[in-house]
Amino acid sequence: QAKRSGRNAIRFFDPATHAAMEARIALEAELRRALPENQFKLYYQMQVNNLGAVFGAEALLRWLHPERGMVSPAQFIPLAEDTGLIVPIGLWVLETACRQLKAWESDPGLSCLHLAVNVSACQFHQADFVDQVSTLLTEIAIDPDKLKLELTETLVLGDIDDTIFKMQALKKIGVRFSIDDFGTGYSSLAYLTQLPLDQLKIDQSFVRNVAVKPTDAVIVQTIIGMATNLGIEVIAEGVETEEQRTFLESNGCFTYQGFLFGKPVPVEEFESALNVKIAAKLST
Ligand code: C2E
Ligand code: MG
Ligand code: MG
Ligand code: MG
Known about the structure:
Layout: H1 2-12, H2 15-34, E1 40-49, E2 54-65, E3 69-71, H3 73-83, H4 86-105, E4 114-118, H5 121-124, H6 129-140, E5 147-152, H7 153-158, H8 160-173, E6 176-182, H9 189-194, E7 199-202, H10 204-208, H11 214-230, E8 233-236, H12 242-250, E9 255-256, H13 267-282
The chain binds ligand C2E and magnesium ion (3 copies).
Domain EAL: 24-278
Protein name: cyclic-guanylate-specific phosphodiesterase
């Protein structure tokens, strides 16, 4: 019997695989409790233009686990996607981001800030996704064009008809769209022109070596040229050095996000970093 089922049977009893499976089951049970037990938090990473002005932020999810400490999204987002837990978690992210925009609205120093929010494929392709977003915007009563949804190329191409339909519906309300990690997927000019896009976000893997690796420099220049010709904004993520920023600026990319400007931080820290910048501007 064991012989006939071959390699698979042996792999099933592999203790390493078994341990990995148990760890995954444990993590899944903990992830299920994370939302009702308020263990999620949004961090904010500033987005700046070439004049140094902060025009917005990307909201990045953090899981403050009671024993494991801070669990990175790279470790739990894939599991949340596999189990469908990303749907309620993603809704919590959207709601929290909208409430943050609302809170900023009443502060003259912060009222023009925009927020970018990451959306997973299975969340976006839910039948009621458009309803959920529009209900949130109405209930919380914020300016819809301050909300930018970040979609990946894989999400967009997964079900292109559903994508176009939903993007157009949300676009009508005023919501904006960015393609995240741009350049890492199977991009095609044909679909890009069909989508109501506001922004392309150059993936950090190209930004990292832009000043030292000629092929990455060409990719970045091509993406900037493409966005410019399509009349949409282009932003670079993962900008860590002045050298990278200078390359981007001299090639026509005028908005940036990365450790050079600020790491993702809790909202209090984000606001005080902004106040420091405003104070510095006023004193010069
Ligand atoms: P992403 O949307 O591409 O976010 C950018 C990631 O790059 C963030 O990692 C950010 O902390 C990191 N980063 C920013 N600037 C720099 C830099 O200068 N250098 C380097 N080395 N890294 C930089 P993070 O926060 O760990 O998030 C990882 C990924 O998890 C995100 O990639 C996104 O795909 C996903 N994610 C985060 N929050 C959410 C969420 O609320 N919903 C969904 N569906 N996915 C999320
Ligand atoms: Mg993103
Ligand atoms: Mg990205
Ligand atoms: Mg990324």
